[in-house]
Amino acid sequence: MRTKSGGYRYPRYFLYAGLFLFLFLLIVGCSKTAPPSPSSTETTVPQESTQTESKQPQDQGPFLKKGEPIYILMYHHFAPRGYWPKQEVAVYVDDFSEQMDYLQQEGYHVVALRQVWDHYKNGTPLPQKPVVITLDDGYESSYQLAYPVLKKHNYPFTIFPVVNWLQFEKSNKPYAPDKSDYLSWPQMDEMVASGLCDVQSHTFDSHDKVNGISVLITKIKKANGQLETTEEANSRVKEDLRQAKTFIEQRYGWDVYALAYPYGEYDEKVMQTMDELGYSMGLCMSKIKHKNNLKAIARIPVAQSDGLNGFIQRLKSKQAQ
Protein backbone atom coordinates (compact mmCIF):
# COMPACT_ATOMS: atom_id res chain seq x y z
CA MET A 1 0.00 0.00 0.00
CA ARG A 2 1.47 3.40 -1.11
CA THR A 3 1.52 6.28 1.36
CA LYS A 4 0.98 9.97 0.64
CA SER A 5 4.73 10.55 0.68
CA GLY A 6 5.24 7.99 -2.09
CA GLY A 7 6.49 5.12 0.15
CA TYR A 8 4.81 1.85 0.94
CA ARG A 9 3.10 0.70 4.15
CA TYR A 10 2.82 -3.04 4.70
CA PRO A 11 -0.23 -4.58 6.40
CA ARG A 12 0.21 -5.43 10.09
CA TYR A 13 -0.17 -9.16 9.54
CA PHE A 14 3.06 -9.20 7.51
CA LEU A 15 4.88 -7.67 10.46
CA TYR A 16 3.37 -10.19 12.90
CA ALA A 17 4.23 -13.09 10.62
CA GLY A 18 7.82 -11.96 10.30
CA LEU A 19 8.20 -11.57 14.04
CA PHE A 20 6.75 -15.04 14.66
CA LEU A 21 9.11 -16.61 12.10
CA PHE A 22 12.12 -14.89 13.72
CA LEU A 23 11.19 -16.16 17.20
CA PHE A 24 10.57 -19.71 15.88
CA LEU A 25 14.00 -19.87 14.19
CA LEU A 26 15.66 -18.50 17.33
CA ILE A 27 14.09 -21.17 19.58
CA VAL A 28 14.95 -24.04 17.21
CA GLY A 29 18.55 -22.88 16.93
CA CYS A 30 19.03 -22.67 20.72
CA SER A 31 17.56 -26.14 21.32
CA LYS A 32 20.13 -27.69 18.98
CA THR A 33 23.12 -26.15 20.75
CA ALA A 34 21.99 -26.30 24.41
CA PRO A 35 23.68 -28.91 26.69
CA PRO A 36 21.59 -31.89 27.78
CA SER A 37 19.58 -31.46 30.95
CA PRO A 38 20.42 -33.41 34.13
CA SER A 39 17.42 -35.67 33.60
CA SER A 40 18.58 -36.67 30.12
CA THR A 41 22.09 -37.39 31.49
CA GLU A 42 20.72 -39.72 34.18
CA THR A 43 18.94 -41.85 31.62
CA THR A 44 22.20 -42.55 29.78
CA VAL A 45 24.06 -43.88 32.89
CA PRO A 46 23.08 -47.33 34.26
CA GLN A 47 21.62 -46.98 37.75
CA GLU A 48 23.91 -49.70 39.12
CA SER A 49 26.99 -47.71 38.12
CA THR A 50 25.89 -44.57 39.95
CA GLN A 51 25.12 -46.58 43.09
CA THR A 52 28.49 -48.29 43.06
CA GLU A 53 30.38 -45.04 42.59
CA SER A 54 28.63 -43.40 45.52
CA LYS A 55 29.10 -46.26 48.00
CA GLN A 56 32.28 -48.11 47.15
CA PRO A 57 35.43 -46.96 49.00
CA GLN A 58 38.23 -45.93 46.69
CA ASP A 59 40.85 -48.56 45.87
CA GLN A 60 39.01 -51.23 47.82
CA GLY A 61 37.64 -53.33 44.99
CA PRO A 62 34.44 -55.39 45.23
CA PHE A 63 32.29 -55.54 48.34
CA LEU A 64 32.34 -58.32 50.91
CA LYS A 65 29.76 -60.98 50.08
CA LYS A 66 27.55 -62.82 52.53
CA GLY A 67 29.42 -65.68 54.16
CA GLU A 68 32.90 -64.34 53.39
CA PRO A 69 35.17 -63.97 56.44
CA ILE A 70 36.17 -60.85 58.32
CA TYR A 71 39.68 -61.24 59.76
CA ILE A 72 40.10 -59.61 63.19
CA LEU A 73 43.72 -60.02 64.27
CA MET A 74 44.75 -59.95 67.93
CA TYR A 75 48.22 -58.89 69.05
CA HIS A 76 49.59 -58.09 72.49
CA HIS A 77 53.30 -57.42 72.93
CA PHE A 78 56.08 -56.83 70.35
CA ALA A 79 59.83 -57.31 70.60
CA PRO A 80 63.02 -57.12 68.55
CA ARG A 81 64.24 -60.56 67.53
CA GLY A 82 66.12 -62.23 70.36
CA TYR A 83 64.07 -60.68 73.15
CA TRP A 84 61.33 -62.58 74.98
CA PRO A 85 62.12 -65.98 73.41
CA LYS A 86 59.33 -68.56 73.52
CA GLN A 87 56.90 -65.97 74.88
CA GLU A 88 54.05 -66.41 72.41
CA VAL A 89 52.38 -63.08 73.17
CA ALA A 90 55.55 -61.21 72.14
CA VAL A 91 55.57 -61.09 68.32
CA TYR A 92 58.91 -60.22 66.73
CA VAL A 93 58.61 -56.86 65.01
CA ASP A 94 60.33 -58.03 61.82
CA ASP A 95 57.73 -60.81 61.56
CA PHE A 96 55.00 -58.26 62.18
CA SER A 97 56.36 -56.10 59.38
CA GLU A 98 56.36 -59.07 56.98
CA GLN A 99 52.79 -59.91 57.99
CA MET A 100 51.64 -56.37 57.24
CA ASP A 101 53.49 -56.46 53.90
CA TYR A 102 51.76 -59.73 53.08
CA LEU A 103 48.31 -58.22 53.69
CA GLN A 104 49.07 -55.46 51.22
CA GLN A 105 50.60 -57.75 48.59
CA GLU A 106 47.73 -60.25 48.71
CA GLY A 107 44.92 -57.73 48.34
CA TYR A 108 43.62 -57.66 51.91
CA HIS A 109 41.97 -54.42 53.00
CA VAL A 110 42.78 -53.22 56.51
CA VAL A 111 39.72 -51.42 57.87
CA ALA A 112 38.89 -49.79 61.20
CA LEU A 113 37.05 -51.82 63.82
CA ARG A 114 34.32 -49.19 63.78
CA GLN A 115 33.65 -50.03 60.11
CA VAL A 116 33.06 -53.65 61.06
CA TRP A 117 30.74 -52.56 63.87
CA ASP A 118 28.85 -50.40 61.37
CA HIS A 119 28.69 -53.33 58.95
CA TYR A 120 27.13 -55.62 61.58
CA LYS A 121 24.78 -52.98 62.99
CA ASN A 122 23.69 -51.13 59.85
CA GLY A 123 24.69 -53.29 56.90
CA THR A 124 27.26 -50.78 55.67
CA PRO A 125 29.35 -52.43 52.92
CA LEU A 126 32.88 -53.64 53.56
CA PRO A 127 35.52 -54.35 50.93
CA GLN A 128 36.38 -57.96 50.21
CA LYS A 129 39.07 -59.57 52.42
CA PRO A 130 38.64 -57.06 55.26
CA VAL A 131 41.19 -57.19 58.10
CA VAL A 132 41.04 -55.48 61.49
CA ILE A 133 44.16 -55.03 63.62
CA THR A 134 43.69 -55.01 67.41
CA LEU A 135 46.37 -54.59 70.09
CA ASP A 136 45.48 -55.61 73.65
CA ASP A 137 46.66 -54.44 77.08
CA GLY A 138 48.55 -51.29 76.03
CA TYR A 139 52.20 -52.27 76.04
CA GLU A 140 54.75 -49.59 75.19
CA SER A 141 55.98 -51.84 72.39
CA SER A 142 52.75 -51.02 70.55
CA TYR A 143 54.01 -47.45 70.27
CA GLN A 144 57.73 -48.07 69.88
CA LEU A 145 57.66 -51.05 67.48
CA ALA A 146 54.24 -51.73 65.97
CA TYR A 147 53.10 -48.15 65.38
CA PRO A 148 55.90 -47.24 62.90
CA VAL A 149 55.01 -50.31 60.81
CA LEU A 150 51.29 -49.50 60.85
CA LYS A 151 51.96 -45.86 60.02
CA LYS A 152 54.14 -46.88 57.07
CA HIS A 153 51.19 -48.79 55.59
CA ASN A 154 48.61 -46.23 56.71
CA TYR A 155 46.72 -49.06 58.46
CA PRO A 156 44.05 -48.17 61.02
CA PHE A 157 44.18 -50.10 64.29
CA THR A 158 42.44 -50.34 67.66
CA ILE A 159 44.19 -50.48 71.03
CA PHE A 160 42.38 -52.03 73.99
CA PRO A 161 44.25 -50.74 77.07
CA VAL A 162 43.61 -51.62 80.68
CA VAL A 163 42.99 -47.97 81.49
CA ASN A 164 44.51 -47.87 84.97
CA TRP A 165 47.73 -49.55 83.84
CA LEU A 166 48.85 -46.68 81.61
CA GLN A 167 51.07 -43.88 82.84
CA PHE A 168 49.81 -40.29 82.84
CA GLU A 169 53.26 -38.81 82.29
CA LYS A 170 55.56 -39.68 79.42
CA SER A 171 58.69 -41.34 80.77
CA ASN A 172 62.10 -39.83 80.09
CA LYS A 173 63.71 -43.26 80.28
CA PRO A 174 64.84 -44.81 76.99
CA TYR A 175 62.70 -47.65 75.67
CA ALA A 176 63.79 -50.98 77.16
CA PRO A 177 62.74 -53.90 74.92
CA ASP A 178 63.54 -56.39 77.67
CA LYS A 179 60.82 -54.82 79.83
CA SER A 180 57.07 -55.19 79.46
CA ASP A 181 56.30 -51.57 80.29
CA TYR A 182 52.98 -50.02 79.44
CA LEU A 183 52.15 -47.02 77.31
CA SER A 184 51.80 -43.52 78.63
CA TRP A 185 48.70 -41.56 77.76
CA PRO A 186 50.78 -38.94 75.90
CA GLN A 187 52.08 -41.76 73.66
CA MET A 188 48.51 -42.90 73.10
CA ASP A 189 47.52 -39.30 72.32
CA GLU A 190 50.19 -39.11 69.64
CA MET A 191 48.92 -42.26 67.92
CA VAL A 192 45.32 -41.04 68.11
CA ALA A 193 46.36 -37.71 66.57
CA SER A 194 47.61 -39.60 63.49
CA GLY A 195 44.02 -40.54 62.66
CA LEU A 196 44.92 -44.23 62.57
CA CYS A 197 44.46 -45.23 66.22
CA ASP A 198 41.14 -46.01 67.88
CA VAL A 199 41.00 -46.65 71.65
CA GLN A 200 38.39 -48.94 73.18
CA SER A 201 38.01 -50.72 76.53
CA HIS A 202 39.88 -53.66 78.05
CA THR A 203 38.40 -52.79 81.49
CA PHE A 204 39.57 -50.11 83.89
CA ASP A 205 41.49 -52.39 86.24
CA SER A 206 39.98 -55.88 86.02
CA HIS A 207 42.54 -57.79 83.98
CA ASP A 208 43.25 -60.46 86.58
CA LYS A 209 42.31 -63.99 87.53
CA VAL A 210 41.18 -65.69 90.72
CA ASN A 211 41.53 -69.46 90.78
CA GLY A 212 42.12 -69.38 87.04
CA ILE A 213 38.94 -67.42 86.27
CA SER A 214 38.71 -63.81 85.10
CA VAL A 215 37.64 -61.44 87.87
CA LEU A 216 35.13 -60.10 85.37
CA ILE A 217 33.01 -63.23 85.82
CA THR A 218 33.77 -64.46 89.33
CA LYS A 219 33.57 -63.27 92.92
CA ILE A 220 36.67 -62.01 94.70
CA LYS A 221 37.56 -61.51 98.34
CA LYS A 222 36.96 -58.14 99.92
CA ALA A 223 39.44 -56.30 102.12
CA ASN A 224 38.02 -58.04 105.19
CA GLY A 225 38.74 -61.44 103.65
CA GLN A 226 35.10 -62.30 103.00
CA LEU A 227 33.86 -63.28 99.56
CA GLU A 228 31.72 -60.82 97.68
CA THR A 229 28.02 -61.36 97.39
CA THR A 230 26.58 -61.71 93.89
CA GLU A 231 25.23 -58.17 94.10
CA GLU A 232 28.60 -56.80 95.19
CA ALA A 233 30.40 -58.62 92.35
CA ASN A 234 27.95 -57.29 89.78
CA SER A 235 28.31 -53.76 91.16
CA ARG A 236 32.13 -53.98 91.08
CA VAL A 237 32.20 -55.11 87.46
CA LYS A 238 29.70 -52.49 86.37
CA GLU A 239 31.66 -49.71 88.05
CA ASP A 240 34.91 -50.89 86.46
CA LEU A 241 33.45 -50.95 82.95
CA ARG A 242 31.79 -47.59 83.52
CA GLN A 243 35.07 -46.00 84.63
CA ALA A 244 36.93 -47.31 81.58
CA LYS A 245 34.27 -46.11 79.18
CA THR A 246 33.95 -42.69 80.82
CA PHE A 247 37.70 -42.05 80.92
CA ILE A 248 38.30 -42.85 77.25
CA GLU A 249 35.22 -40.97 76.08
CA GLN A 250 36.18 -37.84 78.02
CA ARG A 251 39.77 -37.96 76.80
CA TYR A 252 39.05 -38.50 73.11
CA GLY A 253 35.46 -37.37 72.64
CA TRP A 254 34.18 -40.47 70.89
CA ASP A 255 31.84 -43.29 71.81
CA VAL A 256 33.36 -46.33 73.50
CA TYR A 257 31.28 -49.13 72.02
CA ALA A 258 33.64 -52.14 72.26
CA LEU A 259 35.02 -54.22 75.10
CA ALA A 260 37.80 -56.79 74.68
CA TYR A 261 37.21 -59.37 77.40
CA PRO A 262 40.31 -60.14 79.51
CA TYR A 263 41.38 -63.71 78.66
CA GLY A 264 38.40 -63.80 76.30
CA GLU A 265 36.11 -64.74 79.22
CA TYR A 266 32.60 -63.39 79.60
CA ASP A 267 29.13 -64.51 80.71
CA GLU A 268 25.50 -63.48 80.35
CA LYS A 269 25.71 -61.07 83.29
CA VAL A 270 28.66 -59.21 81.75
CA MET A 271 26.75 -58.93 78.47
CA GLN A 272 23.75 -57.54 80.35
CA THR A 273 25.97 -55.00 82.12
CA MET A 274 27.41 -53.97 78.75
CA ASP A 275 23.89 -53.28 77.50
CA GLU A 276 23.19 -51.11 80.53
CA LEU A 277 26.36 -49.07 79.97
CA GLY A 278 26.18 -48.73 76.19
CA TYR A 279 28.79 -51.26 75.07
CA SER A 280 27.45 -52.94 71.94
CA MET A 281 30.43 -55.04 70.80
CA GLY A 282 32.41 -57.67 72.71
CA LEU A 283 35.63 -59.20 71.42
CA CYS A 284 36.84 -62.61 72.53
CA MET A 285 39.91 -64.62 71.68
CA SER A 286 39.58 -67.56 69.31
CA LYS A 287 36.72 -69.30 71.14
CA ILE A 288 33.18 -68.00 71.64
CA LYS A 289 30.12 -69.26 73.50
CA HIS A 290 27.54 -67.44 71.40
CA LYS A 291 27.14 -67.47 67.63
CA ASN A 292 25.81 -64.56 65.60
CA ASN A 293 26.14 -62.22 68.57
CA LEU A 294 27.88 -58.86 68.32
CA LYS A 295 29.05 -59.25 71.92
CA ALA A 296 30.88 -62.48 71.08
CA ILE A 297 33.21 -61.74 68.17
CA ALA A 298 36.08 -64.19 67.75
CA ARG A 299 39.53 -62.90 66.89
CA ILE A 300 42.59 -64.52 65.33
CA PRO A 301 45.44 -64.62 67.89
CA VAL A 302 48.88 -64.05 66.34
CA ALA A 303 51.74 -65.71 68.20
CA GLN A 304 55.52 -65.37 68.22
CA SER A 305 56.03 -68.82 66.72
CA ASP A 306 53.78 -68.01 63.74
CA GLY A 307 56.27 -65.94 61.78
CA LEU A 308 54.96 -65.32 58.28
CA ASN A 309 54.03 -68.90 57.33
CA GLY A 310 52.00 -69.49 60.47
CA PHE A 311 50.29 -66.16 59.99
CA ILE A 312 49.28 -67.18 56.46
CA GLN A 313 47.94 -70.47 57.78
CA ARG A 314 45.81 -68.66 60.36
CA LEU A 315 44.24 -66.58 57.59
CA LYS A 316 43.57 -69.67 55.51
CA SER A 317 42.03 -71.45 58.49
CA LYS A 318 39.61 -68.53 58.89
CA GLN A 319 38.68 -68.82 55.21
CA ALA A 320 37.84 -72.49 55.69
CA GLN A 321 35.47 -71.92 58.61
TrEMBL record:
It comes from the Bacteria. Pfam families: Polysacc_deac_1. Residues 35-63 are annotated as: Disordered. InterPro entries: Glyco_hydro/deAcase_b/a-brl, NODB_dom, Polysacch_Deacetylase. The keyword Repeat does not apply. Residues 129-321 form the NodB homology domain. It is found in: Secreted. Keywords: Signal. Residues 39-54 have a biased composition (Low complexity). The keyword Metal-binding does not apply. This is Polysaccharide deacetylase family protein. It comes from Heliobacterium chlorum.
